[in-house]
UniProtKB/TrEMBL annotation:
Localization (cell): Cell membrane
Annotated organism of origin: Elysia crispata
PANTHER family, per the entry: NEUROPEPTIDE RECEPTOR-RELATED G-PROTEIN COUPLED RECEPTOR, NEUROPEPTIDE SIFAMIDE RECEPTOR
Main location, first listed in the record: membrane
Name assigned to this protein: Uncharacterized protein
Chain residue ranges for the region called Disordered: 94-131
Length: 235
């Protein structure tokens, strides 16, 4: 059945009215809806989501490896430069001690302890901490996208399954046309109604769970929701 809104002349009121009509098209519109809108487009969306997810994870891993190698090279260069500075500083102290032989023993020991303290000083680990924070943030993004994709695929599966089954089993429907004159209940009408309600539930669940996922993983989204909630509470 094709459902349309058409204009018809009403002889009783002598006016043209907009009415709702169901036109018999032999089930063509229903077949196109099941095959195109509820299966082909959904399968294409799932393939695109999974492909984009794989590309994103691959690129993030490559980015993390690149930054890790760059950070390691930078740390090695910094350590080499610091060692040279320490060596030059120690040589300068040694030369100064040779020139100043008349210096008291206490001043010499104090200068030596100062040199050891400078040598034993550790380099700051801000670069490693920064790299760790970046990696953690990227891992959080990956987890959020994986959850959204998994919820989407899971919630769309019942809808695609029952519409595809209806194309292979003509009795799997809520009604069946006979001789073009009247409608009767199909053989699997109750099972069809149950599966339809389950598919509708998962469709609504998909939209509801996405809000919770973004609220948990996206700090900007979370702050926006809190701000809107505060504004709503003040009204």
């Amino acid at each position: 059945m094709t459902k349309r809104i058409v204009r018809e002349f009403d002889p009783i009121s002598n006016t043209t009215q907009v009415v709702y009509r169901e036109l018999d098209d032999g089930g063509l519109a229903e077949k196109l809806n099941d095959i195109m809108n509820r299966n082909i487009l959904n399968w294409a969306s799932i393939v695109i989501v999974i492909a984009c997810l794989v590309v994103m994870v691959t690129k993030l891993r490559a980015s993390v490896r690149f930054r890790s190698s760059a950070g390691a090279n930078h740390s090695a260069e910094t350590h080499t430069g610091t060692s040279d500075v320490h060596l030059n500083y120690a040589q300068a102290i040694s030369s100064e001690q040779d020139r100043e032989k008349q210096t008291s023993e206490s001043e010499t020991s104090g200068q030596t302890s100062k040199t050891k303290t400078f040598k034993g000083k550790k380099l700051p680990s801000s670069e490693k901490e920064k790299q760790g924070m970046i990696s953690s943030k990227e891992a959080q993004v990956v987890r959020a996208v994986v959850l959204v994709a998994a919820v989407f695929v899971t919630c769309q599966t019942p809808l695609m399954a029952y519409t595809l089954a209806r194309r292979f089993e003509s009795q799997f429907d809520n009604k069946e046309e006979e001789d073009g004159k009247f409608m009767k209940w199909s053989k699997y009408v109750f099972l069809f109604g149950l599966i339809t309600n389950i598919a509708s539930f998962f469709t609504l669940l998909n939209a509801s769970v996405n809000i919770l996922i973004h609220y948990n993983f996206n700090s900007r989204y979370r702050e926006t929701i809190k701000t809107l909630w505060k504004c709503h509470s003040l009204m």
